[in-house]
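User: I've been trying to design a sequence by hand for this structure and keep getting stuck. Would you show me what you'd pick, starting by listing the structure so we're on the same page?

Assistant: Good idea, let's start from the same input. This is the structure you sent:
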């Protein structure tokens, strides 16, 4: 139960950080377009775009690090969607994938 709460929390934080960075990237682009050639406004928009891209990079890097740490310690830290086979039929078929195997507490397609 606690692991599920942590998984959901990390997943929601990752999604929120990504959406926030994309919002600021779009906002910076609109700010640049609306700057009317004024140097101060262009510089502010440019900084906003750079920081938004850095935010996206940090979010994706943190996703990679969390996945790596979870794999190293055999703990599923992120609630990532994927194909899950039926627990009642672990030998079930997976579309386009050969086998259904037991992995970290779930039957998954591999």
């Amino acid at each position: 139960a606690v692991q599920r709460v942590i998984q959901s929390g990390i997943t929601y934080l990752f999604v929120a950080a990504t959406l926030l960075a994309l919002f600021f990237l779009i906002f910076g682009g609109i700010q640049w377009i609306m700057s009317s050639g004024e140097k101060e406004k262009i510089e502010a928009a440019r900084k906003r775009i750079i920081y938004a891209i850095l935010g996206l990079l940090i979010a994706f890097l943190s996703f990679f690090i969390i996945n790596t740490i979870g794999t190293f310690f055999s703990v599923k830290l992120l609630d990532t969607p994927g194909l899950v086979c039926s627990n009642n039929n672990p030998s079930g078929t997976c579309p386009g994938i050969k086998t259904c195997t037991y992995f970290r507490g779930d039957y998954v397609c591999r």
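That's my pick for every position. To get oriented when you compare it with your attempt: Residues 39-72 form the longest helix (34 residues). The helical segments are 2-33, 39-72.
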